[in-house]
Task: structure prediction
Amino acid sequence: MSGPDRSAALAQYRRRAAVYDLELALFEPVRRLAVERLALQPGETVLDVGCGTGLSLPLLHAGVGSRGHVVGIEQSSPMLAQARDRVRRARWRHVTLVESPVETAPIGVRADAALFHFTHDVLRRPEAVDNVVRHLAPGARVVATGLQWARGWRRPLNLLVWPAALRSVTTLEGLERPWSHLERLAGPLDVEDLMFGAVYLAWGRVAGSRRRTRSGR
Ligand SMILES: C[S@@+](CC[C@H](N)C(=O)[O-])C[C@H]1O[C@@H](n2cnc3c(N)ncnc32)[C@H](O)[C@@H]1O
Result:
């Protein structure tokens, strides 16, 4: 199966930008849980990888406080335009938005934490994950969430996962373990099933030279 397709992704989010926030409402509890797992501290720097319209920015900004720094990275102009509006309306300083594919983004900080919230196309590009991990401090926390193929007796749920994935990603490659490149590059992750196994939450710390896996999946 082939990997993510950049021009298809740009077209997909150009079409979707206007209705995106509404469509994501169902998954807001997952977002809150994901940001909670980042365990942000005042004054820290956090990366919002594939930040989209900036729906995570309020929680991330609250987590690092006014002395902290949030860096959002996003390749879709119409999605990022909404994130920019959000930042302007809230008058947040110390939120930097970078318009770029994650794989070549000039990240320019060493971060304490990184969030990959519903960013399957990013997670399935090893060079994108590598660029993020290279900009994380030793011991930095990483959290990834998103759709996954449900397993075992929950497999019939994939009749819902499939159309939802087709609407938001350009490859189904890796949907059984979307976090696998992150785990290889950052270190062992814990993985929890949410929403009856249709969504995963993976989290861990950048582990330097350790490369064994903890998820067991
Ligand atoms: C499902 S949206 C998630 C947006 C946001 N993280 C959220 O929680 O609402 C996926 C986002 O990833 C972006 N994206 C996909 N591939 C990317 C890449 N290689 N570099 C930067 N952004 C990418 C898309 O443009 C889209 O905005």
